[in-house]
Amino acid sequence: MxxxxxxxxxxxxxxxxxxxxxxxxxxxxxxxxxxxxxxxKDFLAHDxxxxxxxxxxxxxxxxxxxxxxxxxxxxxxxxHWYFNSTYSFLRDLFWWPIYGKKWRAS
Length: 106
Fold this sequence. Notes:
The protein has helices at residues 13-40, 64-78, 83-93, 99-105, and strands spanning 43-46, 49-54, 57-60. The protein is an alpha+beta fold. Strands 1-2-3 form a three-stranded antiparallel β-sheet.
């Protein structure tokens, strides 16, 4: 809704109420945008792939559906290594949130 300067003040009350109702939504959207921008600083998209900058270097971020297959592949095809060896190999190639905790738990 837009305030029309040619209308009496009362006629613009709906526009003012709409603006005030949506003010918190706008503030929330700005807050979310700033948080996403802060989190996104370590990521980049390249050739339709998501990459993450880690303390170990740039790592590929696989889609959620691919992660279990990656873990199985490392375990079954590369060898039955100890956790730390397999974790290091995984860490050198990929990144996704908390893979160490989830993997160790399974």
